[in-house]
Fold:
Amino acid sequence: MAFQVSNIMLFILMFLLPLSATAQPYRNVTLGSALTANNAKSTWLSPSGEFAFGFQQIIPGGYLLAIWFNKIPETTIVWSANRDNLVQEGSRVQLFADGRFELSDSRGQRIWAATLSRVGVTYGAMLDTGNFVLANSNSVVLWQSFDEPTDTLLPTQTLNQDVKLVSSFSKTNYSRGRFIFILQNDGNLVSYTRNFPMDNVIFAYWSTQTMGTGFQVIFNQSGYVFLVAQNGSLLNYVASNAASSSQFYQRAILEYDGVLRHYVYPKSVNSAGGRAMAWSIMDFIPSNICLRVGGITGPGACGFNSFCYLGTDQMTVCDCPTGYSIIDPNDRMSGCKPNFAAQNCDEEARETDHFSFNDMLNTDWPGSDYEDFDQVTEDWCRQVCLNDCFCAVAIYRDSKCRKRRYPLSIGRVDDSIGGKALIKIRNTNVTANSSVSEKSSRSTLIIIGSVLLGSSTFLNLLLLSSLLLYVFYFNRLKSNRLQPYQVLPGLNIRRFSFKDLQGATNGFKEELGRGAYSTVYKGIVKNDNIENVVAVKKLHKIATEGEQEFQAEVSSISRTNHKNLVQLLGYCDEGQNRLLVYEFMSNGSLANFLFENSRPNWYKRMQIAFATARGICYLHEECSNQIIHCDIKPQNVLLDESFTAKISDFGLAKLLKPDQSRTTTGIRGTKGYVAPEWFRNMPITVKVDVYSFGILLLELICCRRNYEPDVEVETEMILADFAYDCYKEGTLHLLVANDEEALNDKRFDKFVMIAIWCIQEDPTLRPTMKRVMQLMEGSVEVPIPPDPASYITSV
Structure:
């Protein structure tokens, strides 16, 4: 999709195009110079020392000739020569007297060589741009690493036609992997799945659709990555979030999961703004690779028999269904294998009574279907799959039954899929040889009976007494296990055992939802012989490892008490298991209510807006320990049986490991709802929740998502920008076309103005949540809001 750019913008873009290599400062590598692969780690540095060229040890005894960021502790390789062929200790890279630049192994065999367009090399140099060049005496570049990228682009680098990035195989294996990003000769910029280990491609999962016009991809010094035509006009943004190269190291990398991500790393503590010095994500494409990768063949975004979903931190997650385990723990995309013997296809031993189903909502493997049935019941679908030894999974959706066979392909989990997957697994109490076991058990009983009948009366009495003692002990043990749950001292919440919650959820069978750090299951617990439906959140990874630290955080969460917060009922911290038990919200999330069904009425949407605001205000103003939620979004606003809105997942930030709570910016939150200060040298305060609420309020007002790529008018894609344009131009009615209830409400304009105040880029301009409540209730007049990007007096 082409973008219209003003002449001024074009001038700025052209000014920021990559500088000529001849204008860069050099630290010459003279003819005859060489580096040897060993533990000494000798390198050729750029003038500033920010980049290094040399050998990196990847595995014991295995070295990669590479370029990397040299001033950050985390080894970050941006280019390599021999990614598919590591060399051993003693290997050398040398700039020969005749200008040849070659890598040879320890036996002197050539592994790699720079392809020179012409002779005359007089020196080499590692530049401060991260580009290694070979040049002649006139400083004309004859070869440069920028022309032969591996998986990474750097500021000032360009990607020309027929040049591609190939992802690494895994996070620690730098050899070529499963995805390709290429600017084709026809001008189309495309991401493909690769027919690994062959070089041909399978499926295009993202493209700019610029056939005949795309000429060059540019990564400029302001942090933009974009596609231009031959005349220099802008066609498409690949990464549209800017960052200063003077304050941040930057890179755009096609990662091993197939997503192209734009990362930044602060060059100083001042640039970090009090945050951790780490790589943070600024932008990425595609938005959800799990749903984009398809095709007739191939494993999908993850391996065979696995499924893919987008975590709350917007990172791709590959996981195995219940009853399956990952094939290679070091390769998350290796796929999954069943932990049980396959169903017997013998007509006389079909084993249908030895198998059952594990249900997964919103899950499918569309690349493995072989039989479809319409207008059937779910029970019928279960039975027809159970009777079919080839059926591994049945998909039931909209009264349709779809059979899936091994290997399961293109697995994905997403709310947009609907229906459920019925995953067939062997019951845990039977094996493929269960009939043999049963015969063995019967034989054992016969032997024991014979011994009893043939023994003395005294021995019989002794055995009988032992049996009675065992039954008494077993019943007592069972009774102890069924004792009322313990209560955390001083708090009205229960401490459950893991076995209790395993039973309450029927073996964690019915999944309600999942994220990067947790999976939520439906369960039933008894209280005074009354059964209560609950939601059990099973945390995958948490920051605290000790029982006392976990209990302290649970204690903080449990002390909250507000009608617009989801109530915590209990917890479990047994061994490595950390689970939280919440009240069950029968009407699901606001995201489902708002975006997936017919449009809810205006007054119900505004009730939800008020309820959400009250809940956030309580967390900020009324808790004994102030809580910043950090991830306000429709998925974290739940609705009970009367559609009362309640905020979930508050207070979890301290429980999560940093790698589990990172977002696309490397900080907490979800793309589209994250406040701008996460990217800047600014403190993080409760105002980040105010910003997220402003986006959510606009979504409630307009009954649409913050980002809609499929709209007819490009200016309407980003709701926040569209809303301010409508406000400025006096066309607010365009936000709620055909919604007469909204247009007839005198508060409509006021609510839009409040939302615009909330999404101001300068956090000091945003009102507090207490002031937001006053503005919404009408006790305070709403001033005229400025452009969200401006900086004027606060509300």
In short: The two ends are 38 Å apart (CA to CA). Confidence is low (pLDDT under 50) at residues 1-25, 431-458, 471-491, 655-667.
